[in-house]
């Protein structure tokens, strides 16, 4: 049974919107535990000795959902959340409505959406180089990826958010918004 004192924060945003930056801040400032939907995909790709490209992760996600149900990743994250000991728990990388299926039923779940301008997201993607091929991605390729199905679903889910963060400014401005949200829900 889930401990009522836990606060679960679902972080949603398009590619390079700042999800990991927010998650890292919450881990440092509030001793939060973080679970990324993409981590389970990276783990499987690692085990299969396949490159951890965005394309491979999308293919694997589709394969898992088609064969084990649209909610397979949501169920996995729910188990992770239930087993976590921290007061603050982050679920990062929500991309589809099914990703919040079980989490939304928890009274202490809050969905936080991140709004970031496309050009800024592109610059961050190149700089961080998280996935193979990111640093060489062209603006046109990035725009094409931003139009993919999962990214479009993110925009729809964002409308259900309890809080919206504007991540077009400085880190100081970002952290201030995060602290204000924590103060409201704590």
TrEMBL record:
Matches recorded under Pfam families: AAA_17
InterPro entries attached to this UniProt entry: P-loop_NTPase
Record-given protein name: Dephospho-CoA kinase
Organism: Candidatus Portnoybacteria bacterium CG23_combo_of_CG06-09_8_20_14_all_37_13
